[in-house]
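Morning. Coffee machine broken again, so started the prediction first thing and wrote up yesterday's gels while waiting. Chain of 269 residues, entered below exactly as on the submission form.
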Amino acid sequence: VVVDNYKPYTCDVLDYPQDKDVEHGRHSSHPVELTRTFYLDRSDVRSVDSAGFFGVAPSKIVRLKYGPVFTCTRVDVDASVLAGTCSYAEDASVKPKGVLTWVSAAAAPVEVRVYSHLFTVPELGAVDDWEALVDSSGSEKVYGKALVDGAAIGGSDVLTSFQFERLGYFVVDQDSTAERVVFNQIVALRDNDKADDARKEEQLRQLADKKAKMHIDPLDMFKADAAYSQWDDMGMPTHDAEGRPLSKSLLKKLLKDRVKQKKLFDANK
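Came back before lunch.
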């Protein structure tokens, strides 16, 4: 969306969780610049208005969350892309029903990975060929040019979690670098049925397990495992519980597991 009569505007955006600013007696916040071009969710923009729709449509007045009131002047449809223009409303005291989440064109670029159900059926059940039911194309969507509020996520550690408004909960992935932050979806915002609730609990459990695992030194990861009875100086198992030497294939697998653990452990330093 492009602002026709643009003038600089800084929005006062609340910090979440809402840390109390004791000195000033209010919740802490940070400034976000409203740029001439900003972005809305596609579902909030229509070329034709309708009853019960509170988003952007021609001649409609809306408010940006934490921001000013706008009047939409035009919406253009180009293939699958919707582009609109708007102007600051003449009467800023107007209280429109539509209050829209948005992102500045100056926001931080990130990669976002969104996951849905792994299989093409709601419940896997007893099947012989479960691999044929894996949704290899639709279970993951990668948005390589997503935009987020940089002040809210700046300097976040791996596995730090966030709620993206209207989307769900996301966590900083270990693939992140100083130049490129990667977010993985861990819980969708609208998981209501029992199957989704179970998946949500499992996802949170796995996240908790992963956080706990990050504190385990790879030198010690096998020493408490009763499946082994002897270890070398680097903590790698050499014999099973019965005292028999481990096979080369098993040693190779354990070494791969240790390399993965080292990456997790190093990311937590």
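The mean pLDDT is 84. Going to sketch it on the whiteboard this afternoon.
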